[in-house]
Design goal:
Layout lengths: L2 E5 L2 E4 L4 E8 L8 E6 L6 E6 L5 E3 L7 E6 L4 E6 L8 E7 L9 E6 L1
Parallel strand pairs: 2-10
Antiparallel strand pairs: 1-3, 3-8, 4-5, 4-9, 5-6, 7-8, 9-10
């Protein structure tokens, strides 16, 4: 059974930082590309960042230069370091296994003005 558990969300002021974590079980983590998506109220879910099994990264334009995705294949964990946060980053952030329907339940990030 595949499980993805996110943590690290919360309330932060504009300009602040948060680090999200997602720990996976039930998959061979090191062979899978992983991704972070987000869904803001009233909007569709969108890709934020992804990392291939060999470490190639991809970022959505709104977060380039501010967010960094990384992974620890020993801990079966993928991270999203978010710096210089803006109110428009407010959303539920989901961890997922690329090209599958495996998703976590999400963690809420709220950026106040």
């Amino acid at each position: 059974q595949v499980q993805l558990v996110e943590s690290g969300g919360g309330l932060v002021q504009t300009g602040g930082s948060l680090r999200l974590s997602c720990t996976a079980s039930g998959i061979i983590f090191r062979v899978n590309a992983m991704a972070w998506h987000r869904q803001a109220p009233g909007k569709q879910r969108e890709l934020v960042a992804s990392m291939s099994r060999i470490g190639i990264t991809n970022y959505a334009d709104p977060v380039k230069g501010r967010f960094t995705i990384s992974r620890d294949n020993v801990k079966n964990t993928v991270y999203l370091q978010m710096n210089s946060l803006k109110p428009e980053d407010t959303a539920v952030y989901y961890c997922g296994v690329m090209d599958t329907n495996y998703w976590g339940k999400g963690t809420l990030v709220t950026v106040s003005t």
